[in-house]
Amino acid sequence: MERGHQPVGRQAIEKMRVKEDARVLDVGCGSGWATRLLAEKAKRGQVVGIDISDEMVRIARESSGGFPNVEFQVASSESLPFAEAQFTHAFSMESLYYYVDVLRALKEIHRVLVAGGAFVTVVDLYQENAPSHHWIETLQVPVHLLSIAQYHSLFRQAGFVNVRDERIHDPTAIPDGYNSTWFKSREEYQTYREAGSLMISGEVGK
Predict the structure, then answer these.
(1) pLDDT, tens only, 40-61
(2) Are 27 and 90 in contact (CB under 8 A)?
């Protein structure tokens, strides 16, 4: 995950303009690679990574010993164990479509953000990126395949304002002999890369 998504994840985090004293929530943190990138920005703040998997949280903790401004918790995105207005930013990389109740998760994220706070999510599995659709069978877990318009609608229903989307592209070269279980051919992977990763952002009204 870190190797495959970091080129896009870094770009998304740069666009967040996280200040040194920011308080950031990484939702669905996995091994904590994005949490650590965020912690490099919020040097005088705090970054909290949550994941529903206790094994992922264990790995994240073990890999983040050099970051005093980072902590990890086992928690569900649909029932966040935090007070209202606790964070200035929230981030989610490739996890939103796994949640059973996406709207409830978005409402929870909205709840824990301060007025003027921002949430940014990046997803590769979405309606407009056709090559990603067959992942649904490969993943063998329930996921949501939503369109850009549906994501906008869910963000607005959760209370977010200034909802925007953009595509982020991985700049790394594709090897000539590329092959993967995730794509049927190098050409299909090329089409997927051309579609780009979908970044959706929303703000909490002041």
Answers:
(1) 999 999 999 999 999 999 999 9
(2) yes
Per-residue pLDDT tens digits for 107-164: 999 999 999 999 999 999 999 999 999 888 888 788 999 999 999 999 999 999 999 9
CB 183 within 8 A of CB 166: no
Residue of 122, 120, 113 whose CA lies nearest to 205: 113
Listing DSSP states for 56-89 in one string gives HHHHHHHT-TT-TTEEEEE-BTTB--S-TT-EEE
Domain around 55: 2-204
Q: What is the DSSP letter of 124?
A: S
The CATH number of the domain holding residue 128 is 3.40.50.150
CB-based contact 92:122 (threshold 8 Å): yes
Which residue is associated with the tokens 């490099």? 40
Number of domains composing the chain: 1
Q: What are phi and psi of 195, to 5 degrees?
A: -65, -35
- Strands lying side by side in the sheet with 46-51: 70-74, 46-51, 23-27, 87-93, 113-123, 197-204, 160-168
